[in-house]
Amino acid sequence: MQGPERDSLVSPMFRKLFNYISGKNELNLRMDMTTPVATYIEPGAGPTCASTFTMSFFVPEEHQSSPPNGVCRSNNTFHRRFGGYAPDEAVAKEAKELAELLQAAGETDVDFTHYYVVGYDPPFKPINRRNEIWFIKKSKPASPSE
Description:
- Strands 1-3-2-5-6-4 form a six-stranded antiparallel sheet.
- 12% of the residues are buried.
- It is α+β, with helices and mostly antiparallel strands.
- It has two helices and six strands.
- About 3% of the residues have low confidence.
- It has one domain: Regulatory factor, effector binding domain (Multidrug-efflux Transporter 1 Regulator Bmrr, Chain A, Alpha-Beta Barrel).
- It is globular.
- Belongs to the HEBP family.
- Pfam families: SOUL.
């Protein structure tokens, strides 16, 4: 979904995915809810431009040999854990801090243009919440011998 902020899109994105795992898919197949719930963030070109948000659930292990259409496998990530709820302001702060830490450490194989915010807890859990920011490690080109 696209919009100026993620917060207002979380519920409609979650409902769509929940319906899918509840059997509203091409195979009418029900799947267990999994964690974490990840949202891929493609920031807009400027502060007032719409960003693109793609929420995803991880495919349960018993369905991984033949995942439903549209399922992608993840590359390695650089990540940072943080607690509390994850409103847009907290996500932006954590993503900025992780990017700064990676840059200060001299990491050059990081895609800083997109990132994930990942949540492990249901919304009704008020304390000891676990969230993460993930930056994707850039793919290294294959060597000629591969």
